[in-house]
Design brief:
- With about 200 residues, the protein is α/β, with parallel strands linked by helices.
- Helix content is about 40%, strand content about 20%.
- The protein has one domain: Glutaredoxin.
- The chain binds nickel (II) ion.
- The site of nickel (II) ion has 6 residues, from helix 2.
- The site of nickel (II) ion (NI) has 6 residues, from helix 2.
């Protein structure tokens, strides 16, 4: 790995950490520490949205009764997204089938310019055939980012304009069977943390 890409990774992770801290402080949301949110959840954070997948529209409300892991990213992401999706896939393997059936993983692409619906579908299926990739227009994505107080920022690449990066929030939202945010799982969490979070969320 070149020092340039190391620096770039460090910058991205720093941005993610700062954004996560701001979100947690602003919304009073606890980082996942083994306990789900109080029954009322975190009023004002999250909520329903409708975006598109390769097989049609997808709404968060389609998954009532299931626990949802919601993640913002993009398929050209060199490190953070693949690491997180692989960790979540490993966590799901730890769940008994009956519980796995009650979990939906959704990745929202914040790079609709390059992430076509087919590319996105192929990308998430590489990690787990059940993962859903969704995206929308830049305006639609901006709206969902606001709802979830997440951030995504295009980083231009002057030498090679098509190969730009997108800095983005790197945490995962744990959403309960009634559609409310139960907690945030920070980037770098081990599979066991997702397993524990999902088991509690399913019963929430
Ligand atoms: Ni990423």
């Amino acid at each position: 790995m070149s020092s340039r890409s190391t620096r770039s990774t460090r910058r991205r992770l720093l941005l993610g950490a700062v954004a996560l801290l701001a979100l947690a402080l602003g919304a009073g949301v606890a980082l996942w520490s083994g306990r789900v949110a109080p029954p009322k959840g975190y009023p004002g954070l999250g909520g329903d949205f409708t975006l598109r997948s390769s097989t049609g529209p997808v709404s968060l409300a389609d998954f009532r009764g299931k626990a949802v892991l919601l993640y913002f990213g993009y398929t050209f992401c060199p490190d953070v997204c693949p690491t997180t999706l692989a960790t979540i896939a490993a966590a799901l393997q730890e769940l008994p089938q009956e519980q796995r059936d009650r979990v939906q993983v959704i990745m929202i692409s914040v790079d609709p310019e390059r992430d076509t619906l087919d590319r996105l579908a192929e990308y998430v299926r590489y990690f787990d055939p059940g993962f859903l990739g969704v995206t929308g227009t830049a305006e639609e994505i901006e709206g969902v980012l606001k709802q979830y107080r997440a951030v995504a920022m295009k980083v231009p690449n002057e030498k090679d304009p098509e190969h730009y990066a997108v800095d983005h929030s790197a945490h995962t939202y744990l959403i309960g069977p009634r559609g409310n945010v139960l907690g945030l799982i920070p980037y770098g969490a081990a599979p066991a943390r997702y397993v524990e979070a999902l088991k509690q969320a399913i019963e929430h």
